[in-house]
């Protein structure tokens, strides 16, 4: 990808679509034949966007799939949630189901990365008949809160919410962006390399294509900032317990592949193996790579090959 001061939010070979849901509008990138391709929905990770599938999706399309990669609410080019609301992981399950209904799909394959893998595993447990196959990339289930800590978790979220309301009382929160201004796309990409789920430079540059907003759209020299909703960084008001996570895993009926990077975020979490084992028909593979093993140059080819093998 060439270095310049323009963004390319729609990669070559893809198209951008807009899905009008009852409550908001989601943006998505799509690859493959919309009529003949087998339905496949792809869900990205926290603070990422649909570009995370720019390496994987073309191969899936070539294998006969119609791939639709969503930008979750508050991410990429999708709508933000209304002012005064918070972002709960479970709400994404309703968004995804509404998107599927807008697409006219009944049954589909589901691929998720990181947070998207969490949403995918919850949805596959809650609506098992609709999911044909499930692929989870360095993620499964949710972060947890113990029963005894539930009030404290909500308290942290309330405190952050109150502060946000007071700070933005005189602002149009849904049209104003805030945060650090980066003089160039290159510097923003280098900052993204060091974020949660660190990535190599080409991967970071891909993600930036749908993650950045020009301070002045008419003048790129004014710099760039992250276009995602700042409320995504607030503490969650509610998290499942581990027992609740396992109840979702036990309800999954779709054949499931869980891919874990040996340098990813799942390797030091012992509960991950138990979650995979709780799924009736699941296999787990440990591959060389980091958290974004489907996107980074060193690991995307091997990761893509394993997913194609599983789906076929």
Written overview of the protein:
The protein has 312 residues and is of the alpha/beta class. The protein has one domain: Alpha/Beta hydrolase fold, catalytic domain (Rossmann fold, 3-Layer(aba) Sandwich). It contains nine helices and ten strands. It has helices at 56-62, 89-103, 115-126, 150-167, 185-192, 201-208, 242-251, 271-278, 300-311, and strands at residues 15-20, 25-31, 38-43, 65-70, 108-113, 131-137, 212-214, 224-226, 256-261, 282-287. The strands form two sheets. It has an eight-stranded mixed beta sheet with strand order 1-2-4-3-5-6-9-10, with helices on both faces. The protein has a two-stranded antiparallel ribbon with strand order 7-8. The protein starts with 14 loop residues before the first strand and ends with a helix.
CA-atom Rg in angstroms: 19 Å
**Structure class:** alpha/beta
**CATH superfamily grouping:** Alpha/Beta hydrolase fold, catalytic domain
How many helices? The count is 9
Question: Secondary-structure element order, as H and E?
Answer: EEEHEHEHEHHHEEHEHEH
- In terms of DSSP E residues, the strand content is 15-25%
